[in-house]
Structures are given as C-alpha cells and as structure tokens.
Amino acid sequence: MKFGALTQMKAKNLAPGKHADGQGLWLIKREKSAGRWMLRLVVYGKRREMGLGRWPDVSIGEARERAAQARRQLRDGVDPIEERAKLRRRIDRLSVEQAIEQCFEARKAELKGDGQAGRWMSPLKVHVIPKIGSKAIEDVDQHMLRELLGPIWHQKPQAASKALNRLNLTLKHAAALGLDVDLQACMKTKALLGKQRHKVEHIPAMPYQDVPAFYQSLRDEESVAALALRFLILTAARTSEVRLATFDEIKDRVWILDETRTKNSREHKIPLSKEALLVVAVAEERSDNEYLFAAYRGRPLSDAAMSKFMRERGLAARPHGFRSSFRTWLEERTDAPFEVKEAALGHHVDSGVVGAYQRSDRLEQRGRVVKEWADWLT
Fold first, then answer.
1. pLDDT digits over 226-263, tens only?
2. How many angstroms separate the Cα of 291 from the Cα of each of 240, 246, 299?
C-alpha cells in the first residue's frame, strides 16, 4: 500500500471502519466525525498495536511523525510501547505514601496476621508519612532522609532504624515498578548519620524472690487484668498470647498456641499446672464469650490493661518481665536442662541437623517445671 494514502479531506469523508495510511498506520473511525490512530508494529517477533491519539485532535501529519518516532525507537532496540508506559508512570509521580502502601500490601503474606497489628507500618505512619508522604518516591535521597530521621536517630534509635529499613524495602519495591529511584539512598543516609548512640534497655522485671508475694496479692483482686496476670505469671507466656487466649486453645490440660499466635511463628504447647487450670475455671465463670480474659462488648483484654494494673500498684516491673523472672528462677532454683528452660519460654533451640532429628517438644519435662513454678508461687 502506498504510504500517505490518506489526506485530511479524505479522512473526513471516510465511513466508520479501519482505513490504512501505510507503513502500519491506521485510522480507526467509530463514527464519521471521530476516531483514533493506531500503529501496528512487530516487537520482539510479536505483532503489537500502539495507539497514537484521537482523530481529528491528532492530525495526519502528527500521527505520521509519532509513527516514525516509534519505528526509530524499535530500530534502535527500544520497545516504544513499554517506553511510553514508563513515561506515563513517571508523569503519575507515585508518592512516598502510595509507595509505602503498595510495598506493605506486597509484603503482607510475610507478616504475622497479614500485618494487622500495625507494627510494620507504625514507624512509617509516625515519622515518615506525615513529613514526606506527599513527595514523589523518585525524589527521595540521602539528604531528604537525613533531615527526616536526624532528629530521632539517637533519641529514638529503634524507631529510626525500623523506619529506614522499611523505606529501603519501599525503594526496592518502587524500583521493581520501573521507577527511577536511588536504591542506595538508605545506605548513604546511614553513612551521613553515623553510628547510633544508644543502650539496650531491657523490660523491667520483678526479682523472682518477690513474685510469690505479688502473685498471692493478685488472688484478692477481682479485676480481669489481675486474673490475666496470674495466668501470665503461671505460664510465662507473652502478654499478647495471654490477652487473646481462647477457651478452645486449651485441650487436655495443655494450652496450644498455633503458629499465628507466637512470635517465632511456630506452634507452642504450654502444659498447665493445677493452679493455672484453676485460673481457667474462674475465667470460664466470668467470661461470656470465647476469650478467657474478656473485656467489654465481647472484646479481648486491652494490650495495656495488665501494664496499667502494675503501674497503678506503683511497680516498675512490667508484665513481659515475668518471663525473665521465670527464666532466672529456672537457672537459680532448678536443675532443668538448658533446652527445657528455653523451650518453656517458647524459644526454638533445636536447629539444623539437630532440629531435623530431635522433634520432641519436651512437654513432659516442661510439665514438671511449671508444676514446680506454681508450687513456688503458691
């Protein structure tokens, strides 16, 4: 077909349908007065179609120039369709907040409970999004991040480090989308900010010698928080594990936490002493739903309830610290093997080849340990 088959007058008078101009350029009219330009190309051995704009907004001359440019790109080994898609993505200017949200959605499957607890997003929502969330992700560099995180780099080192690490993942996600981002921005930021000055602060724990007296005092309390604290101390479980405990998790004197309920994403079985079962019985009398320690309107106990109870008692120790009290008691007052002590806290101690062959959860040995602990407390 002769190139330049169409003229402005001829295009205007053509009926609806497909009309060739030559060299793969077509005018597709959906009605007599409106249509669109389309270019047919062979990209990497496959026939593709590339839109070149509306007719008559785009004239014949402009359509031919756009077609010629696309053919030049193809001749130079560039896919003109993909190149235009990249340009459109750059024009859209994905914001930092949008990039973070997309990265979070992509990583949900890797996070416990699909990230519903909000811990992954928390440092970003507090320290990043309010300040640079509206900026383009492609504009993020080490200077912007140094200004953002510098004020908290030493004062709030953990929050700053988490925010920077998650921004690094967000930049990688943006790069995978084809955006022109600096993948070394976070590494450069660390170099600019320097090493963090901070000391590891452990959660305050009550000396194990003082725990029996505290436990005995809880027996005189009627609050749900006090009952939950008794169960937490007896089982040496984590606060979240206790406050979200349900009755169907307790079977045959064993509390079974599936992999979604534990920090290391492994099932953890906790043998219950007679004292712990007594707490369960009291909880069953009080609760009107599935939770052992139910709050108002069918909700589980608040994540701050037990800490608040101890704080109002004027205590420096916190609920999570009872795990340390228990572990110290094990070390000082028992001859239990190291593996049993660690397994009692839900720590994974058998790895590699040992883990492949040693599959016991040491439940029987841990049962004896929790009985001794309950006897010590009572």
1. 999 999 999 999 999 999 999 999 999 999 998 888 88
2. 12, 4, 8
The answer to whether 52 touches 37, Cβ cutoff 8 Å, is yes
Q: Which residues contact 126 (CB under 8 A, 6 or more apart)?
A: 159
**185 contacts 142 by C-beta, under 8 angstroms:** yes
pLDDT number for residue 358: 45
Spatial CA neighbour of 237 closest among 77, 347, 338: 347
Helix (H, G, I), strand (E, B), or coil: what is residue 162?
Answer: helix
CA-CA-CA-CA torsion sign (258, 280, 306, 321): negative
Cβ neighbours for 111, distance < 8 A, ≥ 6 positions apart? 120
Candidates 235, 281, 302, 301; CA nearest to 262 is 235
- Cα dihedral value 340, 345, 163, 301, nearest 10: 170
Mean pLDDT value across residues 282-297: 89
Q: pLDDT category, 117, cuts 50, 70, 90?
A: low
Question: What are the phi and psi torsion angles at 6 (to 5°)?
Answer: -100, 150
CB 214 within 8 A of CB 226: no
pLDDT beyond 70 at 353: no
CB 172 within 8 A of CB 183: yes
Which DSSP string corresponds to 99-134? Answer: HHHHHHHHHGGGSGGGGTT-TTTHHHHHHTHHHHTT
Whole-model pTM above 0.85? no
CA 330, CA 3: separation in Å to the nearest integer? 90
| Token representation of residue 135 | 């900026």
